[in-house]
Design a protein that fits this description.
- With 83 residues, the chain is of the alpha+beta class.
- It folds into 2 domains: 37 residues, YefM-like fold; 32 residues, no CATH class.
- The chain contains 4 helices and 5 strands, in the order E-H-H-E-E-H-E-E-H.
- Strand 2 and strand 3 form a beta hairpin.
Amino acid sequence: MKIASVADLRNNFATISRWIYEGENVAIQKHGHAFAVLSPTNKKKKIALQWPDYESRLKRYCTGGSFKGATAAEIIEDMRGDF
């Protein structure tokens, strides 16, 4: 459990809120005595962001440096299911 003072909350709230968001409990102290604990409401597992495979998409629509002739609307419609 991490510890923060009331002054820390006031001056460094972004850091403390990041600790809580990452699943850490934070004890709040005033004059050296803990009087409250801040904890996350839901502990969510972090899901790794998976980027689309742009290289394979480029190869699908571009051969030899030029597009196959599909319109932008056709390419977008075809890619909609990839996300």
